[in-house]
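ugh finaly. both done.
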Amino acid sequence: MDETYTNLPTSHLLGSVPAVITDEKNGKDHENPAASMETFPPHNGGDRGRGYQTLESPSDSQQQTSNDWKGVFSVTSYTQYFNVDSDIVLNRLISSLYPLGGDFSSKIDANPDLYGLVWITTTLVFVLAALGNCATFLMQKRSDHGTAWSFDVSYVNVAAGSVYGYAILVPMAFYFSLQYLGSNSSLIRFWCLWGYSLFIFILASFLLLIPVEFLRWFIILLSGAASASFVTLNLRSYIEGNNLSVMVVAAFFLQMALAIFIKVWFFP
């Protein structure tokens, strides 16, 4: 009798519950994960307890971009480019005096420095101001023996404005131009390249004290040609495969223009 009751069908009885349909489960499986702003695994918040790790909001990405731009104007961002020893700097100075090698770009590829740029430009400013006054005095002394020594302070202002402006702005102009034209370049490497290219003018300034006009022009034009060749031959490595010969020619004539400016203004 008990077995008879237990075998009766119960689907027609009032209050019976039908089998669970799995559509709801399947719908959950197809739920768009992007609709939720929470991702797994839960983020361990330390003292704040455990919680879900939220996706990055647009404001967070904007804050990250703002921090990147702040790094450009932060002094600490450039400390790594001053981490060079005297042997490396000396080797790069010697390389700048042999422009036909054209291997300077490979030497600074792994470790470009700004130490040379700062040291060379600052030294060149004071050398031009001091020796320019001496050369002017010597030339005037030859024509008038009664000429008294006087230091022209304007030489310092002109030297600082021209040398610092040239060493900073010209590499920036070439960097942005090459970036616009689709060439792979580096602003730090350009600053390093142009900085060391000015070293030869420091040596030439001492030779320009010779009170012979013909020799002065020969020395400055030779120095300018060497500096221009140094820049252009190493600049070619950044524009290989691109028809940008006009950039190389422009770099050459800019270096020559700087050399002529030094001669005309500081050693007339």
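ok and the 2nd:
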Amino acid sequence: MLATSRIFRLCTQYSFQCVKRNAFHCSSVRSAKVAVVLSGCGVYDGTEVHEASAILVHLSRNKADVSMFAPDIEQMHAIDHTKGEPMPTNRNVLVESARIARGKVQALSNLTANDYDAVIFPGGFGAAKNLSNFAVDGANMKVNSDVGRIIQEFHKGNKPIGLCCIAPVLAAKVIPGCEVTVGSDQEEGGKWPYAGTAAAIATMGASHQKKDVTDVHVDQKNKIITTPAYMCETALHEIFDGIGKMVTGVLKLTT
């Protein structure tokens, strides 16, 4: 009987030590390091603030280690968001992006794919005006040199790239033949006011995939995850849900 009790105690101690070791290993798993690239602050001339916030919330919920970046350049122009009209004085993209980042933002020139597991680009007209000139030249657009470099680096490193709203045009231009979504290729009674973007994506040699606002498209070959977000006129919670799926898709591909 004494021998049996001693064996039981030894087994219990061994099990407890195993649990402690496993708990330690679980808690020491490294969080995914994700770079978020901003393009200013405000839908008409910079980053779409709701999209950026949704991305940051979902990354935080998944315990990602996030750093934010933006190009240290002048905006294409500054827009009075109460009127939708250009303002007489311009603004700096990095300085404006600091509003979203609560000051913790670095120049985009400092970002390299070697330091991160994934990169995500929120939308807003800043992606089409400051990170590229898609707003002016459409399918003949040029991409900011650092933006192009970063997308190429992550792609060559087989690391996931997330883009939402208008930002998928960046991947369409830089990675020939990739698959992305900006929602629908038809306006559908005003639900998709920027539906013409799908045709521009096809002209650039990429493949547009029709998706609803709460859906994502995952290009497994190129590790590109996209969702329509505010390319659709819809409720904020649907934007939030679609972005959540994009973030989840990006993080899954980092493992």
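summary for the 2nd one i guess: Residues 14-28 have pLDDT under 50 and may be disordered.
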